[in-house]
Amino acid sequence: MPDIAAIVRQFHTNYSNQEVEKSAPLVTDDVIADINGGAGNGVNGLTFRGRDEFIAWLQHDKIMFPDGKLVHEDLLVSGNMAAIRFYMEGTHLGPVPGPDGIIEPTGRRVHLEVTEFSTFDDEGKLVHVHTLYNTIGLLQQLTSK
Length: 145
Known about the structure:
Mean pLDDT: 94
Largest sheet: 6 strands, mixed
Structural class: alpha+beta
Strand content: 35-45%
CATH topology: Nuclear Transport Factor 2, Chain: A
Helix content: 10-25%
Number of domains: 1
Number of strands: 8
Radius of gyration: 15 Å
Order of helices and strands: HEEHEEEEEEH
Oligomer: single chain
Strand order of the largest sheet: 2-1-8-7-4-3
């Protein structure tokens, strides 16, 4: 069985090093990324399907927070599944979609708490990730006076 913890760390290293495209070989062709409950969760949820959409999602994130770094707090692996609690710290330098429209870059540093539940196939490629992040906390950091 592949080293799932090492694969998760590689995803996050690629993100932190501004090399999200290096994560493309680590996912299946039909990978699914459900964000905050997935598309069925309304305005706060998104679903990305397939390798190209998955990488585009990560690239878009790096436009909003180009210096974003991921720091692991907890990483648990059981069989082909992983649960990860981490945070992203970065500077808001690109537009962020908000409930009332686009939040233009503020130049503020943010600290975003994130939890992910991931499933991998027998080769160690990501099949599904469910990402939950503190949207309200992010909005407060970006819009508070």
